[in-house]
Amino acid sequence: MDDNLIVESSTKIFSGKTSEENLNLINLFLENIDKETYDGPDIVKIITIFDEIWLDLKYGIKEAILFLKIVEILLKCEVESLKKHATNLGITYTAKDLKKGKEGIIHRLLGKYHRKKVTNYFSNCLVLSHAESIEVFKNEPDGSINALVSEIKLETLAWIILYQSQREDLLYLLKESYPKDYAIYLWKCLMCYITMDFEIIMDKPHELSFKKNQIQQENKKLHKNLKVARNRTSILQRTIYEKEMNEKALLTQMHGLYNDAVKETEDLKRQLQQLKHDHNMELTCIREMFEEERAYYQGTINALRLKSIDGDVIQEKTDLTGQTVAVIGGNRERHYREIVKRYNGEINFVPEDKPNLVQGAVLKSNVVFFLSGIAGHVHWRDALNAAKIRNIPFIYVNTKGVTTFEGLLLQYIKQSHETGYRIQLS
């Protein structure tokens, strides 16, 4: 018998011998036989079902286990060994039997199985085959059970108990201690009993009629079913593997996106902090310039007040003679030049697209007019610092308009204290 448990064959064999519900339970048992979680009450129910099936059969489990073990011997034998067994038993096989090969001789031997001489002969073969296990069991029947279960099949141990000791109570111990293996043992006995027509072999051997190559065909069918099951398992394993790989790739992608998002967030935070820092610096500079401008104007007012009291006449300046004006930014160079020339001054003009010329122009001038629009507060800061170094007025013009520029230029000309740092916001 093949040890592989094939659900389809089992369903076909037990159909009509138990209820549909019990058939489903047997199938579930066979499908989950290798799973450790399938145990306990489910196994007890399966054993009960198998015991109920035995009640409707003519022969009991004792006869069935001996038949199972003898059939195993026959199926493992080569043709020459089978021929030797037949000769030893005085069983004649024909040329037709030999033509069928192994199955033909087995058919001939099983046709005589009902004879006591045949069963005794093969029983002796079993004893010789399992002599060592039998000796261990006989030396200590109760204490050797657990050790033997780990070394031989449970059905072999059941045969030893039933035929070498008459201690059927030990079968109950096997049933309680190893319920899953015990259920498999019952299943194998039933399968062999029914598929091999044991009752016909025992009672009506003359009616025994094997189909051609029946045993071989059954084996092939079982192997085919097993191959299909293995292929399905392989496909399932491959599907699970691909799913795991896809999940792993997705997790890697998600991790990468998360890291990118974190990095981008950190960059944005740094940019925001830099903007805040630059804004605060700009506000600080504006406040400083405002304070300096206010101090300058306050000093101018005080000086004018004193001169008014002293009766001095204030001479207004009306031109830029001897002075150079730095005009930073704007896009109307010709107009700025005309206005500065009109008041007899020189001009250092720095266009918006050449901010690198700012510092040089400021250092060569007597006053700075910084028009809005030049790129960035950095250049504004460069111009302001250069004005401080040169100690000249710094006037911020919040427009590019020519009229506003000329008005602020006239205001500068009319001031009595041209030198010293100050800022004018238009």
Automatic annotation (TrEMBL):
Entry superkingdom: Bacteria
Family: Belongs to the UPF0751 family.
Name the UniProt record assigns to this protein: DUF2325 domain-containing protein
Record organism: Paenibacillus peoriae
